[in-house]
Design brief:
- 46% of the residues lie in helices and 22% in strands.
- The chain has five helices and seven strands; from the N terminus they run αααβαββββββα.
- Helix 1 runs antiparallel to helix 5.
- It folds into two domains: 124 residues, Beta Barrel (Polyomavirus Enhancer Binding Protein 2, Chain: A), CATH 2.40.250; 51 residues.
- It starts with a helix and ends in a 10-residue tail after the last helix.
- The protein is elongated and about 105 Å long.
- By secondary structure, the protein is of the alpha+beta class.
Length: 214
């Protein structure tokens, strides 16, 4: 019975907390400024297009151009080998397709001839960041870096606080239900023990039977 109770509580806890994991760390700016990976990627360094590596260079050039027009591309920081699947849309956090259409702020072929200037917002290792850089349309390499995305970090911090408050509330509710169920289990066990004790007493002290020999 106790094993069943534990399994029931575990399944309930798993179901209620499965989607409650936060997307960002508590102190994003400190992580961005002190983490070694972010320190390296925050400095301008060489980047390369990594899509379709098995295809000829002229086909890769066309595909990169097409990818950027569609609002995405695979780019890697050469210094660390960090490969990123970037999305170039003004509202990367929206689930609506109309909000994910790239604009000139995020994909711009007109700043410099032969280059495309790119911008992408995303969460990396629990920190809101912004990728900025440019890529040569012929060589498929360029320069890029990560910046701390203060505006989005504030939004995610607010979401994180709400998640933590909700998680705490759920934990308290779960603990209260667990306490109530354990108390009920203890009461049931005590009641069963009383019944067993009464039966043992009856079996150990049976009633005397009187026979009439007249």
């Amino acid at each position: 019975m106790l094993s069943f109770l534990v399994n029931t509580l575990y399944c309930e806890l798993k179901a209620r907390f499965l989607f409650a994991m936060p997307r960002v760390v508590p102190d994003q700016r400190a992580t961005f400024e002190n983490d070694e990976l972010f320190r390296k990627l925050s400095r301008e360094s060489e980047v390369r297009y990594t899509g379709y590596r098995d295809r000829p260079i002229d086909e890769r050039q066309l595909r990169f151009h097409s990818d950027c027009r569609e609002g995405h591309a695979d780019l890697a920081f050469v210094c660390t080998g960090t490969n990123l699947q970037l999305n170039f849309s003004p509202n990367a956090w929206s689930e609506r397709p109309e909000d994910r259409i790239p604009t000139s702020e995020f994909v711009n072929f007109d700043v410099e001839p032969g280059k495309v200037h790119l911008k992408s917002q995303f969460i990396l290792n629990g920190v809101c960041v912004m990728w900025r850089g440019w890529v040569d349309l012929i060589r498929l390499d360029g320069v890029g870096c990560l910046e701390f995305d203060q505006e989005r970090a504030m939004v995610e911090d607010a979401i994180l606080r709400e998640q933590l408050e909700e998680n705490n509330r759920r934990v308290q509710e779960f603990e209260e239900r667990r306490r109530q169920r354990l108390q009920e289990q203890e009461r049931q066990a005590a009641s069963e023990a009383e019944v067993v004790e009464a039966l043992l007493c009856i079996s150990e002290h049976p009633s005397s039977t009187t026979y009439d020999h007249s």
